[in-house]
Amino acid sequence: MNTQQLMDTAKALVADDKGLLAMDESNPTCNKRFARLGIPQTEEARRAYRELIVTTPGLGESISGVILYDETIRQKKEDGTPFLKVITDAGIIPGIKVDTGAKALAGHHGEKVTEGLDGLRGRLAEYSQMGARFAKWRAVIAVGDGIPSGGCIEANAHALARYAALCQEAGVVPVVEPEVLMDGEHTLERCREVTEQVLRMGFNQLYTQRVMLEGMILKPNMVLPGLTRAQHEDVNEVADATVRCLLQAVPAAVPGIAFLSGGQPSELASARLNAMNLRFKSRVPWALAFSFARAIQQPALEIWQGQQANVSAAQQALCHRARCNRAARRGEYTPAMELEVGPEQRHAAQASH
Q1: What is the number of domains present in the chain?
Q2: Spatial distance between the Cα atoms of 15 and 42, rounded to a whole number of angstroms
Q3: pLDDT range class, residue 1, cuts 50, 70, 90
Q4: What is the 3-state secondary structure (H, E, C) of 28-52?
């Protein structure tokens, strides 16, 4: 294990106020999003869409790393150039999703555990040889009546820690993603309580599995009330609850926290990240960054619609969202930034709400 290389990569992923773009949707998830917009659910359509993303001019100015899916890391541009070459030429670090999905946890109704540890050492060796320098594993924790259980939290924390140890053994930085889901009617306080519990157990397991904290990135949820709850707190309340929770549970040795968007509207995710950096950046030990998927991609996908003629406008929308989130890392994002895009992109951003 090259500890210096791991630390350098982890630092680079959150350097210069940049963040991660998650484009690691599995084929079924990607196909579902395409189906909603009438885009063909084919390998070629997925390839064309991902080419649109990786060839977006100026993407590397705001994005430090991209998380790919197994299909995507092997794909090429229409002219035969491998995506990996396009990504690295843009100064962006390639990463890879390595879990095989969340499955029902035996004996725990309504709860899931993420699988994929079998054969992971071999898969990581292959991905590392291909050029991937970091990886991602997502655990999902549902909040509801009597859940999450201690058994579910521990099972997911243990799997995340073993994944992280295997990554570091392979010289790959682990992005550790324990996601407390937004679905439900729970309060902001209940989300904070569960998130803290999940993070405490997670770091306990990371210590147990001898994971070097300086060579990893944490990808948590923001502390939010459930989606179906009528009352929604303002951005400052979300920022306060989130950072307070992280200060209680995340060791200072971790170089960066890259939030997932979890289905938040694009502009709201940027505003919440901005509030955290505006209020706390000088007072927290880790970088507060982003690792968004839909909150960066959705407006672009809605503009593209599977049409080659729409590629340029879609890329402008994608780059705009990435720039907004880089501004949010500096505490400089304002709603006025949304007026800097053309009417087509603005319409798509509003539709994504």
Answers
A1: 1
A2: 36
A3: confident
A4: HHHHHHHHHCCCCCCHHHHHHHHHH
Would residue 219 show up in a list of annotated catalytic residues for this protein? yes
The CATH number given to whatever domain includes residue 260 is: 3.20.20.70
Handedness of CA 341, 345, 350, 353 (dihedral sign): negative
- For the question of residue 177 being annotated catalytic, the response is yes
Looking at 111, 196, 219, 338, which residue is catalytic?
219
In the set 51, 111, 177, 196, the catalytic residue is 177
Q: What is the pLDDT of residues 246-289, one digit of tens each?
A: 999 999 999 999 999 998 999 999 999 999 999 999 999 999 99
Res 348 pLDDT > 60: no
Beta bridge partners of 71: none
Q: Which domain holds residue 244?
A: 3-351
Pairing between β-strand 173-180 and β-strand 217-218 as defined by DSSP bridges? parallel
* pLDDT digits 0-9 by tens, 292-326: 999 999 999 999 999 999 999 999 999 999 999 99
